[in-house]
Amino acid sequence: MAEINYIEINAENRSITIPQSEKLLGVENDSKAIRKYFRCPKIVGDGIDLTKSDVHINIQNASNKVSGKDRYNAENLKVSGENVTFEWSPLRKATSHKGTVRFSVCVTEEGTDREWNTTIATLNVLEGEELFTEKEREERGSDFAGILTADATADADSIELGKSAYVNGKKIEGTLTSKNEIKAVTKKTELSSTPIIIPNYGQSTMPVLKHTIEVSLADTNKPVLLKRDAKKTVVYNEAGSIYGDAKASDVRVGKTFTSSNGVKITGTLVTSEVKYGTITGKGMNGQAIETGLSNVSRFIMARKFPSSNAKHGILSLVYKDGKLSGIAGFIGVGYNSVDNHSIGTVAINKGTITYTPKTDEEMSALTEGDTYDWIAIGE
After folding, report:
1. What are the residues facing 182 on neighbouring strands?
2. What is the β-pairing status of strands 7-9 and 16-17?
3. Where are the domains of the chain?
4. Which residue of 8, 36, 133, 325 has the smallest Cβ count within 10 Å?
5. Distance (Å, rounded) from C-alpha 77 to C-alpha 74?
6. pTM of the predicted structure, to 2 decimals
7. What is the Cα–Cα distance from 7 to 379, expressed in whole angstroms?
8. How far is residue 22's CA from residue 5's CA, in Å, rounded to a whole number?
9. What is the pLDDT of residues 260-309, one digit of tens each?
10. In what order do the strands lie in the sheet with 83-88?
C-alpha cells in the first residue's frame, strides 16, 4: 500500500496544510475516484473532542455558485495517539467544474451547540471531457447540467404523476396522484370547553365535545397528493354508544338529546308530580286548594269518616281528563252517586283547584266542618 500523505490541520491557528502531492482533487466529473486523508489533534478549541463530535468537510466547487456548495461527512475517523485521522472521498458535485475548489473542516460537538471550524484551503480540478448523449448520461449517472443529483432522495412515489426529476443521475418519472382514500379514527372523546365572547358581557366559555382523531391513508403503500384547491372528504364512523343509549321515552318531553338511537332526538317522557293535603268543608261556599303544582291534570277528594255533621254533602270527587264526577250522601238514606248535572263545578288555574257547589243543591256542597283529604297530580 502506498504511503499516506496526510492533509494536516493546525488546531492553534486553524490552518490546513496540504502536501504538494495532494493538491489535485481530480479531473472534471470524477466521482469517488480518489480519497483524501486528514490528521488533526483529537482535542480542539475549548476541549472539543473530535471522537465525540460530528466532523464534516464543507466545499464550494469551482462554479462559485450557491448550488455548488456541499457538505460531506468525514469517514473512518480513528484515534492515533493525541491525534485523529479521517477520510474524504469527493463526489461529482465537488469536481463538476474545472478550477479551484474551496473547502474547510467543520466540527460540531454532539449534544451541544458548540462548533469549531478551520480556515479555507483549496484543491485543484483539471479540465476533462465528458459524454453528452442521453443514453450515455443514463448509463453513467452523470449530471452535466452542473446540478449534482447524487445526494437527491426523491422516488417515483414522491413526484407528481406527469412530472419527472433526476436522482443520482437517473431520470425518475413521478407516480404520485390524489387517488387514495383518507380514513379517520376517533381515539378519544371528552367533555371540554372553548372560550367565547358574549355581546355586552365579555369572555365566557362554552361546553364542547372534544374529539381526538387520527387521520391516515387507507392504503399506506400509496402516498396521496393534495395541491392547490384539491379537497379530500374524510368520513369516519363513531360509535353512537359513546353518547349513551337513551330513547325518546327516557327523556323529558320537549328536550333534545343524542344517543345510539339518533342525533338530536326530541324526548317524549311525561313526568308526573303528586301533591296531597286536607281542607275543611265550607258548605255551599266555594273553596280553593293551592296544590303547589305548576299544573293539575287529575285530582281526587274524599271526606273522612265518620262525619262530624250529619248533613247532605259530597263524599268524594274525581277529576280526570277535564271531567268531574263524585259521590254524595243523603241524611237517613245512605250513599248515592251524583251525576255531573247534580254536582258543582271545578276550575283549574295552573296549580289552583277551585270547587264551587251547585246553587240550591246541598248534595253538591263540601259538608261544613268535615275534613276532606285531597291528592293532586300534575304533569
Report:
1. 217
2. antiparallel
3. 7-126, 134-173, 240-268, 273-378
4. 133
5. 7
6. 0.39
7. 99
8. 7
9. 788 888 998 888 889 999 999 999 999 999 999 999 999 999 998 776 66
10. 16-17, 7-9, 36-41, 83-88, 75-80
